[in-house]
Amino acid sequence: MTAIKIRVGAVPHGKSTPLFLDVFCRSLIILCTSLSVVLSSVAVCDGHWLLAGRHMFGLWYFCSVEQQQSSELGSQSFKASSNCTRHLDEAGVDGLGVGLAACRSVITLAVVSAIFGLELLVMSQASEGRDSSRRWTLGARLVLLAGLMAAGGVATFVLLLGTFATLLGFTLTFWCQFTATFLFFLNGMAARHIQHIEPLLPFRGHPDKL
């Protein structure tokens, strides 16, 4: 007698439907990267990161804040007037101008790298196959590179002004940049590792044989 093999059902293909968890994680990474770009852009454009006594240290300006006391109808009020200059060496710290120029350049490049990485992450969702995987991988690397450069810029700023820095002296825009740097790292690492997550599809087994 001759054995006859009958294949039941369609042959399963390699390509599978994307899981909800995978789509949700990728969307969350893109959303958080967008938020990081906005936070870092605001922090760099504002640039006032440290308030120490009557001095405001920033990426672009050094300001001296003076308080003027005035009395009207027996009441007293305080008016703050600020004198800002772009000559950062006037702050009395050696090499502050060169150091902060390097700091803002590195952080600006970090924002640019994150923007290009975000664009590649979004474009990868509009394509399929190897092109999608390559764009996602390159976008993840650019976001991770942005995190490294932003961390270097923040560390440079803190080291340059370590003698003036206090925990309460850092402004809201500095903490925006700190949060953006952390999110760059987190999103970059998550985007790299999500490529290695295998789809949790149910076991289909082998075709029946008769």
Describe this structure in words.
The protein has 210 residues and is an alpha+beta fold. It is 52% helix and 15% strand. The chain is built from four helices and four strands; from the N terminus they run αββββααα. It has a four-stranded antiparallel beta sheet. α1 (20-46) runs antiparallel to α2 (96-124) and α3 (129-160) packs antiparallel against α4 (172-193). The radius of gyration is 27 Å and the shape is elongated.
Secondary structure topology:
Blueprint: H1 20-46, E1 48-52, E2 55-58, E3 62-72, E4 75-85, H2 96-124, H3 129-160, H4 172-193
Antiparallel strand pairs: 1-2, 2-3, 3-4
Structural class, from secondary structure content?
Answer: alpha+beta
The gyration radius over C-alpha positions equals: 27 Å
SSE string: HEEEEHHH
Strands ordered across the widest β-sheet:
1-2-3-4
**Amino- and carboxy-terminal Cα gap:** 13 Å
Silhouette: elongated
Number of strands: 4
What can be said about the biggest beta sheet?
4 strands, antiparallel
Residue fraction in strands: 5-15%
Which regions are unreliable across 5 or more consecutive residues at pLDDT < 50?
Answer: 3-17, 73-81, 198-210
As a percent range, the share of helical residues equals 40-55%
Query: Please, what is the average pLDDT?
Result: 77
Count of discrete alpha- or pi-helical segments spanning 4 or more residues = 4
